[in-house]
Every structure is written in structure tokens, then in C-alpha cells.
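This part of the workshop introduces the protein records we will be handling. A record pairs a protein's sequence with a compact description of its fold. Comparing a sequence with its C-alpha cells is the quickest way to learn the format. To make this concrete, we reproduce a full record directly below:
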Amino acid sequence: MKIRSIIHSLVLATILGGATATFALAQEATPLPPPGSPPPSAINDPTLATTPPPIPDNDPRACKKVVIIEDIPYTWDKLEKGTDTAWVAYSNGEFPKSVPVFAKLAELGHPVAQRLMGIVYFFGQGVPLDYRTSLSWFEKAANQGCFEAYAPTAQMYERGDGTIADPGKAYMWYNIAVAQLPQGKERREMVERRDAVGALLTPAQQEAAQKRSLQFVPKLTVPPDISELPDDFFKQP
């Protein structure tokens, strides 16, 4: 399975799920549908038009999480003003209208926006194609525990897209993804990808990569207070 297939599935999941992360797995996918047509699902059959089941907010795989500090919940909800319009523009390929909206959120640390910026730079959607920047955004989302960012981050390290190929880091991210998948086809496919990378490592290197994956703890960004933002933050491009 090629990295573009996985990232295409992320594009579809973004369109289908909006600002709430959806269950985008490492599956074959079809290109974005033309405007006005029902979106195909991110699975092998391009004739299907069903939406992948959403990840519940309390699921550890959810990309966007509530940050609790001293029993006080911090969420991204108030900072997502205007994103509904931006999602529609993005789905229609109007990248100059939509990408700047998500870029501002990504800079603040919004994990869904960070994942989307990984997609944007991977395909050059309204910005110059830049694998290095794409990997940076994917990994930032992955470090926050964004499940949908694990496989793209792993594959970019596996292939050396935007970086020197690093099978140790690829193995680590694949293993983190495997740990969060239930038994089934998707998990078996992820295990196959992890083991293929593991075959490139010495036993000691594989043990070290596995240890890093087991020690992984997401580091969530605390959403800023809306009063701290510039006056023109919500201004649409």
C-alpha cells in the first residue's frame, strides 16, 4: 500500500468528518469526488458512499481531545469559528480560501488542523509541495496522540520522504498504531507494514524502537484562551 493511498484516505476522512476526527485507517482510497457528488468511503470499493464510523471523543484514538488542567477542561471548540465554511471550501478544492484558516489553527496546536496541514503540504494543496513540512505537521499531530497521523508519519520515515529514511522511527509509529487497533483486517495490515520495516533493523534496533513505542505518551497542546488571540484571527481570507 502506497503512502498516497493512506494520505488520500485521510483527505476523505477530513471531508467526511469535518472538525471531528473520523476513523481513518491505513486503507486504499479513491480521489476526492467532484463537488456535489456523494463522497466515497475511504475503503477499497469506490462505488460505496458510506461514511466511516466516527471515533468517539473519549476514545484514545480521537485526534482532538479535551485537555484537563487542575480539573478545568480546555477545548478547541470556540477556536473553530468559521471552520464549517472552510471545510466546504476545502472539499471543493478552494485551497486559497480554506488552507489559511486551518494553518492558523495548526500554528496554535490544534491536532486535527496539524494533521490536515500534513496532507496539504504532501499534495501541494494551495502551497508548494513540501514533504519536509508535511512530515513535520504529521508528526506534531502524532505526538498529540492523533491516531490518523501515525501511519503517514511512519510511512514518511520508512520511505525517506522529507527526511533521511529512518526505519527505527517508522517501526515505532507503526507499533503505536498497532497497539490502538482492534483485531481485524486493518490491524493485520498495520502489523505487516511494521514487520516489513522491522526486517530492516537489527534485533537490538527493533527492541529499542519497540521500547520507545511502549513509552510513548501523547503531549497535548493546551488550547489558548480566545481573548489571547489577535483581533483579526477569525477573519476569513
Remarks:
- DSSP finds nine helices and two strands in the chain.
